[in-house]
From TrEMBL:
CDD domains for this protein: DHQS (cd08195)
Any one cellular-component term (Gene Ontology): cytoplasm
Class of enzymatic activity (EC top level): lyase
SUPFAM superfamilies noted in UniProt: Dehydroquinate synthase-like
Domain 3-dehydroquinate synthase N-terminal residue range list: 67-178
Residues annotated as binding NAD(+): 71-76, 105-109, 129-130, 142, 151, 169-172
Cofactor: Co(2+); Zn(2+); NAD(+)
Protein name: 3-dehydroquinate synthase
Source species of the chain: Pasteurella testudinis DSM 23072
Binding site for Zn(2+): 184, 247, 264
Main localization (coarse): cytoplasm
Catalysis: reaction(s): 7-phospho-2-dehydro-3-deoxy-D-arabino-heptonate = 3-dehydroquinate + phosphate
Compartments it resides in: Cytoplasm
Length: 363
């Protein structure tokens, strides 16, 4: 088992990464004998892993209960949050309880926000079971739910006491979800670490095949990179925004198509290429490096062109609703070179339009 620490100003917490670690009671520290625990999961994940996690915690001497929220982004809502609160109240959980989020990013975000707000906050442990949640959403404390008028519009920064990543859980994850997670993995290389980007170029086929050692190293490196960014900028006043490479374009795709049509990682893949194209137009990223990014995304079975029929006129109004828009100015994460990103705040609309068109397929 490998441990990566997230060092915050006033505290730290461990990310434990390993194979089959959910079956070992000592993976779950700081939980200990006598602790009360509410596991939050969904029916899909619970079928595979709830018994293993419950048994390990019971062997540790914890008093364990569980509540399931429905599976899917459309259930990342206040209603699901309320289901968790009801279960906690019905079972008399007080401020000394611990919420354990067992699932992908949806469960992690909802359960995390439940922990941030139940009785003005209780302890949270994250057990992410998708590649996206293992390399991104479970680390760093962003929690929340969607509102009918916008994604992730209600939430809080609330850090877990520990993150437990069992890489073998990815064996039951649908392949398309694995590929979508690889988009976020590739993002870390592109924005922060050119050596990791090169490593990905050499090892992408093994990652697609879920080769255990490569997968563990990949998760570890992403967690180290994210932990470092979060340590520098817990509440996204600066550098943390770099983690959004491709996301402003990608969110426009997700909103235009309706959530659930393209997966988040798929939309981010195309968005990263648009950002790379714009970076090239600005004279920063070489054409060859744009191709390297495209090739890596193709090897990860990710899309590299805009959805059929979606035009620049569809993107631009949606992009202006992004949380990074300040005083009516579109701010985009762009690349100086592979491994070095920055936030560009004065983007030329014509160049943005061109980048979108360069990544679109016309008949
Ligand atoms: P998800 O949670 O919807 O999981 C994808 C699907 O895989 C679901 O059907 C789920 O039940 C299933 N699943 C999960 N683990 C499984 C396993 N091991 N075996 C079989 N099936 C499994 O999707 P996601 O991609 O993990 O997360 C997306 C969410 O994460 C979005 O709501 C997004 O906003 C959020 N997110 C949050 C942050 C953050 O910093 N908090 C960062 C990125 C994304
Ligand atoms: N996923 C972006 C962040 O955690 O800031």
């Amino acid at each position: 088992m490998i441990e990566v620490n997230v060092e915050l100003k006033d505290r730290r917490y461990p990310i434990r990464i390993g194979a089959n670690i959910l079956a070992a009671s000592d993976s779950y520290a700081p939980l200990k004998c006598g602790d009360k625990v509410m596991i939050v999961s969904n029916p899909t994940v619970a079928e595979h892993y709830l018994a293993t996690v419950s048994d390990s915690l019971q062997r540790l001497g914890c008093q364990v209960e569980s509540v399931l929220i429905p599976d899917g982004e459309q259930y990342k809502t206040l209603d699901s949050l309320n289901l968790i609160f009801t279960a906690l109240l019905q079972a008399n959980h007080g401020r000394d309880t611990t919420i354990v989020a067992l699932g992908g990013g949806v469960v992690g975000d909802v359960a995390g926000f439940a922990a941030a707000s139940y009785q003005r906050s209780v302890r949270l442990m994250q057990i992410p079971t998708t590649l996206l949640s293992q390399v991104d959403s479970s680390v760093g404390g962003k929690t929340g739910v969607n509102h009918a008028l916008g994604k992730n519009m209600i939430g809080a920064f609330y850090q877990p006491c520990a993150v437990i990543i069992d890489s073998t859980t990815l064996n039951t994850l649908p392949k398309r979800e694995v590929f979508a997670g690889l988009a976020e993995v590739i993002k870390y290389g592109a924005i922060l670490d050119s050596a990791f980007f090169e490593w990905l170029e050499s090892n992408i086929d093994d990652l697609v095949a879920l080769q255990p050692q490569k997968l563990q190293y990949c998760i570890q490196r992403c967690c180290e990179l994210k932990a470092d960014v979060v340590a520098r900028d817990e509440t996204e006043q600066g550098d943390r925004a770099l983690l959004n490479l491709g996301h402003t374009f990608g969110h426009a795709i997700e909103t235009h198509l309706g959530y659930g049509s393209w997966l988040h990682g798929e939309a981010v893949a195309v968005g990263m290429l648009m950002a790379a194209d714009l970076s090239h137009q600005l004279g920063d990223l070489s054409r060859q490096d744009v191709f390297r990014l495209e090739k890596l995304l193709v090897h990860a079975n990710l899309p590299t062109v805009s959805p059929d029929g979606m035009t620049a006129d569809d993107y631009l109004p949606l992009m202006m609703r992004d949380k990074k828009v300040l005083a009516g100015k579109l701010r985009l994460v762009l690349l100086k070179k592979l491994g070095q990103a920055y936030v560009a705040s004065d983007n030329d609309a014509q160049q943005v339009r061109q980048a979108i068109e360069n990544c679109s397929q016309f008949d």
